[in-house]
Specification:
- By secondary structure, this protein is α/β, with parallel strands linked by helices.
- The protein folds into two domains: 145 residues, Cobalamin-binding domain (Rossmann fold), CATH 3.40.50.280; 206 residues, Alpha-Beta Barrel (TIM Barrel).
- Helix content is 39%, strand content 16%.
- The strands form three sheets. It has a seven-stranded mixed sheet, sandwiched between helices.
- Helix 14 packs parallel to helix 16.
- The two termini are 27 Å apart.
- The C terminus is likely disordered.
Amino acid sequence: MPKIMFIEPKAPDLHIYSRFKLPRLGLLILGALMRDRGWEVDWIFEEIQPIDFKKIREADLVGISTITSTAPRAYLIADRVRDEGIPVLLGGPHVTFLADEALRHADFVIRGEGELALMRLIDAWEADRDFSNVPNLSYIVDGEARHNAMGAVVEDLDRLPFPDLSPLLASGESILGYRTIPVQTSRGCPYDCVFCSVTGMFGKGYRFRSPQNVIEELRRYDHPKNHIFFYDDNFAANPKRLKTLLQAMLDEKFAFTWSTQVRADIARHEELVRLMRKTGCSTLYIGLESVNPRSLENMNKRQTLAQMKEALRVFRRQHISVHGMFVYGFDEDDWRTVKQTVRFAKRARLSSTQFLILTPLPGSEFYRRVLSEKRLLFKDWGLFDAHHVVFRPKQLSLAALQKAQMVSHKRFYSWIQSVKNALRFRWFEVAIAQYARGLNRMWQKKNKAFISAIKLLGAQKQARITIDFQQKIELD
């Protein structure tokens, strides 16, 4: 029986979700497809388990999925695997947009969605090894990169198997005895914010699994010690469809709680928000992005500050916690934006928040812009995690933009704020604040050299400087 090994590399640095070790679902769906066609399948999710080359050497093919920040680690692993004489397939958002770069480390690259392309690749693998008709595939022919045309996306998501979560469940990962179960019910997004690469990866049109299909998967995880996290980029993209799904969840009387990502505009449907709460929604993760109206307009967010404020009032009335996500570094942002953002987050009584640094991810409009304007400072992809300044902003200095994130977390998660939450018996917020303060301190300690370099670059005022801060990684 042929064997495929799937690998998801670990993140290069600390981040707000470092404690929450959840794999992306792409490899788990691909694994289920490969098992259905008779291959032996194994996984390594490096956040949970170390790289084991004894296991890898048993594979006939190794597939590695990477986002931009994990690309250096993915390439390092891929190079080592190929040294063992095992073919490597790379996929994920980063290599979708930088396939030529990825081909220096892999035999094959699948761009965009992987399910249909992988099945066609394996058809050719098991037959005559002619890969010329495999959609989305990049590979080397006679020393030259060949990029096959992009094929159709999976329109009927119900056709895909449920992701095989056995690697996650077997790890025993939990927080306070609760397991987080990832589920995705849709793909795509029509909003096309300038800093986002989702539309380049999954398209601008929404595609949904049917409510019946989702309910069938959720039945597998109906337990009071489970917490479902819906991975959708916008879980409430279609309010009518969501209402049908939530009503079906209510009829099932599921025992789990759940959380997800939505846009603030879902609050216009307060009846739907009430139904979300009734079915066990505990937290909503919302990309508020900015309190600067000009930044909101120029990032193509299609929301206003007034809409954000009203939405947060609606969620508070329904006793749903909100994790707000803000981004600093747009061309219109200055230090006043930073102060106003922290003030807004505290007054809005957000349960938790992230203050992120605008990052030009390959595949986004913003990446193309800073590249053409020669404002990109680094090409060490490990820094592209929304916690490091990697481009030259317009209104803020490099040091100021880096400082904005650190100071904002310190002020939002202050001891005074924790005392106020304790007096209101909001113990979850107290615990989150303690975790965030510790993480902020550890990140600054680990990144002292980078912070010093940013100050130096700002002082030199050079527009084109490249420094590689990639740490040497040794594989066992």
